Amino acid sequence: MSIAPAPVLRDEQIFELLHDKLSALVGEHGAWTMVARSAEDTEVIFHGLKAREIATELTEAITTEQATLRGESTGEPTALSWTPAPITTWSEPAVAQPVPAPTSEAEVAEVAAASAAWIDKASATLASARLVA
Question: What pLDDT does residue 126 have?
Answer without folding.
Answer: 80
